[in-house]
Structures are given as structure tokens and as C-alpha cells.
Amino acid sequence: MAMVAILNYPNPRLHKKGEIVTDVSAPDVQAMIDDMFYTLEHTNNCAGLAATQMDFANPKAITVLNDYSEDGSQPRCLINPVIIEQEGEQFEDEGCMSVYPRHIYEPVKRAARIKVRALDRHGNTIEYSAEGYVAKLIQHEIDHLNGMVYIQRLSSLKRGRVDEKIRKIIKKS
Ligand code: ZN
After folding, report:
1. Candidate list 19, 70, 85, 141, residue with the active-site label
2. How far is the CA of 91 from the centre of ligand 1 (A)?
3. What is the pLDDT of residue 173?
4. Does residue 141 have an active-site annotation?
5. How many whole angstroms separate alpha carbon 57 and alpha carbon 31?
6. 53-108 pLDDT per residue, tens
7. Which CATH code, of 3.30.465.10, 1.10.10.10, 3.90.45.10, 3.20.20.70, is assigned to 12-172?
8. Ligand 1 centre from 61 Cα, in Å?
9. Distance 81 CA to ligand 1 centre (A)
10. CA 96 to centroid of ligand 1, rounded, Å
11. Cβ atoms of residues 130 and 113 within 8 Å
12. CA distance 53 to 51
């Protein structure tokens, strides 16, 4: 297992879609999942990671998450995840490991409740209903797998301010 670098906005690779996994048992798929968990566990304040925001040559449609359930029932690895139901609305702050997380966080409109369908790392189909924070997290990670970072969901006015802030951060670093 290895630590994998997390890509920083505006790296164009963040806008590449994750490759659909056709064989979950393939060694490269299992190794990718191991490296993703290792990186998640060794990155401060990291709630979840999508393969497409990491320095993989061929990132696949995989996301790993911390478990926020009280009973350990929440899946921690979603492969080829798709939202199959959604309802309600939330508007909560988001940050992203790829978008200067110590400096930038903005509220984004998301569904309040979702049901996601995915494969687990053993190839089983799972369906999971989430609400609130975990629903937001899963929607954020699925955006990544579709080549989208959360600041693309901001109004153009807000987006302009965030881009300006990012330019200043990059200049200083
Ligand atoms: Zn993110």
C-alpha cells in the first residue's frame, strides 16, 4: 500500500471521468482501493477520496469514505456509484482536498437524501440510503468521478471570488 498524491485544482486531470470498473477482482483495481484507503487514513481531515482526484495513471470510478454511521453499516468503498433516488435539499459548506481545503469552503446545493447503487470491493451490488452529511459527501465524490469539482456548482459571482482567492493562494505558495 502506498500514499498517492492528491491532485490540486486547477489540474486538468481533475476533469477526467473515472473509468467504469468491469472486473472488481482485477489486481490493479484492488491495489487502487488499498492505496486509496491508505491515503485517506493518512490525510488529515479527509472525509473521502475519489480516484479521479488522485495521481493514478488510469483512475477508475471508485470512491472511499470514512464511516460516519454509529453501527458501522455505512459502505466505505463505492465502485461505479450511481444515485438512483434523491429528494429534498440541503445547502451546507463543502471543502475539497483538491481545492485548498484550509482556505476554501463554500455552501453548495445538494439533495438532502439519496439512495446510491454501487459495487463493493467484493463485487456485490449494494444500495445505500444516506442523508445529511453522508448524502452530501457521496454526491461530492460522485461529482469527482464525473470530472467535476464542487466549485463548478457555485454561481458565477461566487465562482469568480473563489477563483480570485485561489490565484492569490497559488501566487503565495
Ligand atoms: Zn473533493
Report:
1. 141
2. 16
3. 83
4. yes
5. 13
6. 999 999 999 999 999 999 999 999 999 999 999 999 999 999 999 999 999 999 99
7. 3.90.45.10
8. 14
9. 15
10. 4
11. yes
12. 5
* Secondary structure, 3-state, the chain: CCCCCECCCCCHHHHCCCECCCCCCCHHHHHHHHHHHHHHHCCCCCCEEEHHHECCCCCECEEEECCCCCCCCCCCEEEEEEEEEEECCEEEEECCCCCCCCCCCEEEEECCEEEEEEECCCCCEEEEEEEHHHHHHHHHHHHHHCCCCHHHHCCHHHHHHHHHHHHHHHHHC
User: What cell numbers appear for 2 in the block?
Assistant: 502506498
Segments making up each domain of the chain, as ranges: 12-172
Give ion ligand 1 contacts, CB < 5 A. 96
Q: How far does the centroid of ligand 1 lie from the alpha carbon of residue 76, in Å?
A: 16
User: pTM of the entire structure?
Assistant: 0.97
Q: What does the block give as the cell for 78?
A: 463505492
Q: How far apart are the first and last CA of the chain?
A: 30
